[in-house]
User: Fold this.
Amino acid sequence: MAALKPEELKSLEERFREKNQTCVILGASGETGKELLAEILRRQLFSKVTLIGRRKLNLEGPLYTNVSQELVNFEKLDESAAAFQGHDIGFCCLGTTKAKAGADGFVRVDRDYVEHSATLAKAGGCHHFVLQSTKGADSSSRFLYLRVKGEAEARVQAVGFDRCSIFRPAVLLCDRQESRPGEWMARKVFGVVAHFFPTALSVPTEAVARAMINLVVMPGEEGQKVEVLENAAIHALGQA
Assistant:
């Protein structure tokens, strides 16, 4: 997927705003989710933005006047079905780690919560769902992480959105607020590699967020309900 020219992107954004669409973000407290929210608000693309999560974020100031927050219990998500009503676009950046949540907790968050959220979003009127997955996602993989991500992709596709966009970034480059020495070292190493091979093994979270938004304002291809963007395509689309 080629990068958009500035004038082309501006025209697409203007036409998109005329549709007066709304969106919901799941996982706005994560590294990609935070960048996504900031990018959406900077570009003022949606008439209303709803954040669905298990804790309230500290959002103050005029920039957030059209942002609402819905607190939910993901273990009892059907009780919060109303929170998923009335959104045109859904962004899902939900995710945890095996180290943080254990194997069972990781599966629940990265697969089950994602699938349940997608189902409720579709029932609530969402026609375009954007899912953050990972490079190498494969439901038949012998590695738990890649297998669960692949299963989540398959289940979201099966929900039957008019348009489903799956992003498979490689290692995410960001400045985490959490202290994770191993990840910090890995980011330093991948940062050096990225200098010489920018699209091979990593991608900045802000580039992923820009690519998501740039794709959303672009019309989908005729007859194509599912599109999968690998790391190189995310880099290209996230440049504009």
Residues 98-123 form the longest helix (26 residues). The chain has one domain: 6-170+205-237.
